[in-house]
Amino acid sequence: MTGTELIFYLMAAAAVGGGLGVVLARNVVYAALFLLLSLLAVAAFYILLATEFLALVQLLIYAGAVIILLLFVLMLTRARDVPAALDGPQKPVAAVAGLALLGLLLTAVAGTTWPRDVGTITRVPFESIGDALFRKWAVPFEVASLVLLVALVGAIVLARPEEGE
Amino acid sequence: MESVTQEIPLEHFLIVSGILFSLGVYGVLARRNAVLILMSVELMLNAVSINLVAFAVYTAPELFVGIIFAIFVITIAAAEVGLALGIILRIYRNRATANVDEVDQLKW
Amino acid sequence: MIGMSDAWLLPVLPGTAFVVLVLFGNYLPRKGDWLAILAIFASFVLFFPVAADLTDALAKTGERFAGVSNSITWFQVGDVFQVRLGVFVDQIAVVMLAVVTFVSLMVQVYSLGYMKGDARYGWYYAVMSLFAAAMLTLVLADNFLLLYFVWEIVGICSYLLIGHYHERRSAAEAAKKAFITTRIGDLGFLIGIILLWRSVGTFNISETFRAASAGEIPTNYLTASVLLLFLGAMGKSAQFPLHVWLPDAMEGPSPVSALIHAATMVVAGVYMVARTLPLFQAAGDVALPLVTGVGLITVLMSATMGLVMSDIKRVIAYSTLNSLGLMIVALGAGLTTAAMFYLFVHAFFKALLFLAAGSVYHATDELEVEQMGGLGRKMPLTAITFFLGALSMAGIVPLAGFWAKDDILRASFDNQNIAVFLLLAVSVVLTALYMTRLVLLIFTGEPRNRRAHERAHDGPPAMSLPLVALAVLTVVGGFVAFDAVGKALGFPGGIGEFVFVGGEPESFAVNGGVMALSIVLAVGGVIGGLYIWGGKALPARRIAGAFPWAYRILRNKYYMDDIYQALINRVVLTFSAVVAWFDRRVVNDTGVNGTGAVPRITGYVLKFHETGKLPNYALGIAVGVIVLAVVAFAKVA
Predict the structure, then answer these.
(1) Do C622 and A107 touch (CB under 8 A)?
(2) Where does B11-95 sit in CATH, by number?
């Protein structure tokens, strides 16, 4: 197998492994770290798909900010690792649902013929992404920034200490 | 835009994305800690992003809507995580628990 | 120039007075009684040009005169249904117009004195005006629907006026009884009207006549319709068995009894039958004899009951029943002229009798004849006018009542209705008997109640003038039967020449034998009455003692009221209990409460899925998405 394929399989294993870790780990902090692993693997996928910009964004935001946030909140809510308490009573149903979904998705993938000649991807130039982002998709861009503002204000309001604390 | 040979077929990416998504669903439904549920949601969002980008690059590169979409997904996910964690903190402050099974005041 | 086409003005004037009185009556000086009287007086005055126009038209067209009509469209539904408002003037209408306007005027003037100081004085005059308007419209109506509409309004006015003293339980009950009993008749009336409309296609009365005479209505159908119409007349004109309300209606003030239950409303039924007589004649062979039969039963029942009742107004009420029965019998024999003539004179002497009785009550506060006696000396005017009215009722020559009654007797004899003739002859005797009894017990002899006697006096001029006017008419009114008198008044002849519907004018004829017989019977009745009830009335007591069972039956009104009450208790109330059960249990408990209970129970059962737990809700979403995906996938695949 070629190098690309090897890297792909490795990263895939890392992603899936990380995912498994997130949903099965007994220790919440371990779960968070497994999530980090998974996110990093996803960033690698982006690179494999020739969208380096996205990989960078992924690393910065997800691996950088989101994980840190999650860890902070884990600390603040003093999540204890009580062994059986992390999984709810819905575990079996959840497993069924997850497997059903997986089955559906795999069947869909397997049963479809793909239009293009599989084996070529196209690298999208960085400039055109930027161009599109600020021209064609300018409105969603602005709305997204508004969303971020709202989230910011909301998070501050929610998390600030109450009067008298 | 230039074409790059790719030995990895599209379906592989889709399969990985599917697996990750299913794992995320399982996590959302089975886990009790609110933060863990949030992590599972992040897993799902990532899976979706991979899906979108893969399709964009493999099948419709002139449009690259998928890439833009993925950028926005990441942005919104970040915002959502911030807000959700704020809520979790607040709930923890009021009820001293981060266990979603114990927050059932809207029960019948 | 006011003519027959403008006859609609006659009801409109009192109608307007009604509206004004209802809205502004309380603010007018004297509560607006002058307005009501002015309106009815104006109607009375307007009657004369209308009558003159009619006589001119009669003179021009002679026997073929068929009346004049004038109408406007009230509303219309497509091409299918049209309701018109219109007036139709012919000879019998003109007779009724004369009666209604004049007697209404007299009664309203009388009420100035009688109802003075009454708590609901303004309302009384308002309803009186409404009644006058409705009655005049009834007389003039040219289509059945309008007729029915004002027929009901007249019934409502009767209800309101009978129940004028509604603080008194008996008055409220009497008003209810009157309304419900006439309602039974009205139901038949309405069904009859609808049947006729279905067959003919229009409500117009003249059109219906034309259709009937042209044979366009199947005979059985026509007979049924006509009998149903007669049911309405039975209710309104208190024929057996719907007569029970009239005696009780005496709970109302005396002027009301005089106007409504003597001269005008109760003859509405008679008028309606007279108006629609061509339909009766075109119907099957059972219609007219049935009419006559009902009338005869009423005549005999009421005459016998009048012999024993002790309340003045009730006796007069029974005499009204008697007269109404007589009119119906005449119509049943096809004698429109005789019936209308009797109606005409009856209005005067009956109203007179009631007003005089009212005068007695107003003075002495008593209505029971047992409490009276010897009042003649203390209230001479009342006594004389009452006496004249009574003689007229009994049919003593040469008063008006005699000519009218004799006309009926003669006509039925000429038409070979021997059975009818004999029964009518019997009723002449009975009538004379009970009227004499009444006069004797009230105005002659020794006073039986000192206090009543002390208080007796003749009424104020407002009350006395109408009595005098009516008395004069009672004496001379009958002479319009003679051609000479009629011609002198401007009519083509006597009343026979004037009032003929669909037939030919009749000159006043005299059958010497019949006339002699009726004179003998009437005078004999009076003498008999004098004997039985004169002086100490010993013979009366002997007879009552000899036939106690007869006396009891008569006193209890042939137990008719008890029969009705038993019917109501057994049938109506049982049925209504069933209906009430249905309403309570099925409609309310099951239907309404049940419909409310279903969501409640469903909600209670369904609420358990709201666990409040986030994972459960997330599961719901996930399952939903998977199911949708499977369905979509299956469709595509």
Answers:
(1) no
(2) 1.10.287.3510
